[in-house]
């Protein structure tokens, strides 16, 4: 029962982490314009994401523009996109594989060992999915930080970390932690003992008395 509860907890955590990765990928707030230093505070906030750039007015109105051409984007941004999409697809596969191996599911009940191995395999997929998202978000955040502290970057074009990065970091960590819990349900090898030898039965008494 304890291993089943840990397995269920791991799946819920990994699933929530996968949902968070999807939300982080779709959000446009991967980096936001910085108004620190000598910047003049304007009446709008600028955001940039993986798929579009947005400007939010002081009235609350948001205007977004999707990037025109894929070939015009920086190679680092294209790589970040690819890693996040790969993370989402891996997470989708991990969901189906882990569900198959859950103890609360009816499928594959005849072979419990294979069922538990499916849960472990799903956990490994979740770990790889979270790792891909963690690499993508960390790489993007490193680029934002380096551009911010670069003395050759104009002050009015500096950006800071957006909320999508923090969601991505939290979601990838949750997916890897949940996948690790799923891997803890690995079936233990049973110790094989040699077959016990039967002792010979006592010979039936012949009815003779010995003095």
TrEMBL record:
<keyword id="KW-0472">Membrane</keyword>
<dbReference type="InterPro" id="IPR004031">
    <property type="entry name" value="PMP22/EMP/MP20/Claudin"/>
</dbReference>
<keyword id="KW-0965">Cell junction</keyword>
<dbReference type="InterPro" id="IPR006187">
    <property type="entry name" value="Claudin"/>
</dbReference>
<dbReference type="Pfam" id="PF00822">
    <property type="entry name" value="PMP22_Claudin"/>
</dbReference>
<feature type="transmembrane region" description="Helical">
    <location>
        <begin position="161"/>
        <end position="184"/>
    </location>
</feature>
<dbReference type="GO" id="GO:0005923">
    <property type="term" value="C:bicellular tight junction"/>
</dbReference>
<feature type="transmembrane region" description="Helical">
    <location>
        <begin position="79"/>
        <end position="99"/>
    </location>
</feature>
<dbReference type="InterPro" id="IPR017974">
    <property type="entry name" value="Claudin_CS"/>
</dbReference>
<dbReference type="InterPro" id="IPR003548">
    <property type="entry name" value="Claudin1"/>
</dbReference>
<comment type="similarity">
    <text>Belongs to the claudin family.</text>
</comment>
<keyword id="KW-1133">Transmembrane helix</keyword>
<comment type="function">
    <text>Claudins function as major constituents of the tight junction complexes that regulate the permeability of epithelia.</text>
</comment>
<keyword id="KW-1003">Cell membrane</keyword>
<keyword id="KW-0796">Tight junction</keyword>
<keyword id="KW-0812">Transmembrane</keyword>
<feature type="transmembrane region" description="Helical">
    <location>
        <begin position="119"/>
        <end position="141"/>
    </location>
</feature>
<protein>
    <recommendedName>
        <fullName>Claudin</fullName>
    </recommendedName>
</protein>
<dbReference type="GO" id="GO:0005198">
    <property type="term" value="F:structural molecule activity"/>
</dbReference>
<feature type="transmembrane region" description="Helical">
    <location>
        <begin position="7"/>
        <end position="27"/>
    </location>
</feature>
<dbReference type="GO" id="GO:0005886">
    <property type="term" value="C:plasma membrane"/>
</dbReference>
């Amino acid at each position: 029962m304890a291993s089943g509860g840990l397995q269920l907890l791991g799946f819920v955590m990994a699933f929530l982490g996968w949902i968070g990765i999807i939300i982080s990928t779709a959000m446009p707030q991967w980096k936001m314009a910085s108004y620190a230093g000598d910047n003049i505070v304007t009446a709008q906030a600028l955001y940039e994401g993986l798929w579009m750039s947005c400007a939010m007015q002081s009235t609350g109105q948001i205007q977004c523009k999707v990037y025109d051409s894929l070939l015009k984007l920086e190679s680092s941004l294209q790589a970040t996109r690819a890693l996040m999409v790969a993370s989402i697809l891996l997470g989708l596969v991990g969901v189906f594989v882990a569900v198959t191996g859950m103890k609360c599911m009816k499928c594959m009940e005849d072979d419990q060992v294979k069922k538990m191995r499916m849960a472990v395999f799903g956990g490994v997929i979740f770990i790889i999915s979270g790792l891909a998202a963690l690499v993508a978000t960390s790489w993007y955040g490193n680029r934002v930080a380096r551009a911010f502290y670069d003395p050759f970057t104009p002050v009015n074009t500096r950006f800071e970390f957006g909320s999508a990065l923090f969601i991505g970091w939290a979601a990838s960590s949750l997916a890897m932690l949940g996948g690790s819990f799923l891997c803890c349900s690995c079936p233990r090898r049973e110790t094989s003992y040699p077959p016990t030898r039967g002792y010979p039965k006592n010979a039936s008494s012949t009815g003779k008395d010995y003095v």
